[in-house]
Amino acid sequence: MSNFKQGAKRVLIHLAVILGLLFAVLFIFFQVYLPGYTNHGETVTVPDLENFSYHEIESYLEARDLRYEITPDSGFVADAEPLSVLKQNPRPGAKVKQDRKIYITLNAENAPLIKMPNLVNSPLKNAQEVLSNYGLLRGEIIYVPDIGQNVVLEQKFHGRSIQEGFEIPKGSQIDLVVGDGLGKQSLSIPNLIGMEEEEAEFLIVGSGLRMGRVNFVTTDTVPKGTIVKQLPPSGIEAKTGELVDVWVSELGATENDF
C-alpha cells in the first residue's frame, strides 16, 4: 500500500513539474515573445496626406515608419494640384502598426476630356445639376431679354458658344446665357461705326442686344480697334437680345478689304 502511495506521489510531482513548465513556456510566449514579434503597443498615427505632392510623400512617411502604394485608380479635382493626394486608406488619425502601407489616390496630371452635355432649353436649376454631374463648373450667368424665364438659351466655353458633344477638359467653367422672362421688345439698332470695340460692346449690351461675331479687317485709314461695319445696320428695328456682328479695323491695307 505504501508503494502505491509513493508511486502516486511521484506521478503527481512529475505532473506538477510538467504543468509548471508548460505554464512558464506559455507565459514567455504570450507575454514576452509574441508582443515583441508583433510590436505590441507600438502604433503610429496615420497623418493627413491630402494635398501633399507625390514627390513629398515618400520621405514624409519614411520619417514616420510608414510605407505607401499608389493605387491604379486616379481622380480629378480642378482646384487641386496635379499629382497631389486626393484620398488615402487608412484615413488620417487611424492607429496602425509600424511599417504599415498607406494606399494613395492621386489627382490626375491632366484633366480628362468629356463631351459637353446639351443644356439649351433646360431650366437653369436643372442645367446646374447636369454640370455638376459631369464634373463641370457653372461660370457666369448672363441674363438676356427672353420670354423663357431662367431658361438656358446658350452655353459658352471661354466666351464661345459650344454645341453638345464638343470635348472639353473636366472641371471647365461653362457660362450660361439665360432668359430673364421679360420677352422680346422692339428697339432701334444703335450706330456703332467709329466707336472703339469695347465702347461698342458696352452700348450693344446696354441697349438690350447681344454681341455677335467680331470680325477683323485691315485698313490704313481708320485707327486700329475701330468699328468700321456692323450688321444689322443702325436704325433697323430689332428684337431685344438680337445679335449684332461687328467688323473691327486692323492696320495694314485699305478699307476696301472689308
UniProtKB/TrEMBL annotation:
SUPFAM superfamilies: Penicillin-binding protein 2x (pbp-2x), c-terminal domain. This is PASTA domain-containing protein. InterPro entries: PASTA_dom (IPR005543). Keywords: Membrane, Transmembrane, Transmembrane helix. Residues 41-108, 110-180, 183-250 form the PASTA domain. SMART domains: PASTA. It comes from Echinicola vietnamensis (strain DSM 17526 / LMG 23754 / KMM 6221). The chain crosses the membrane at residues 12-34. It comes from the Bacteria.
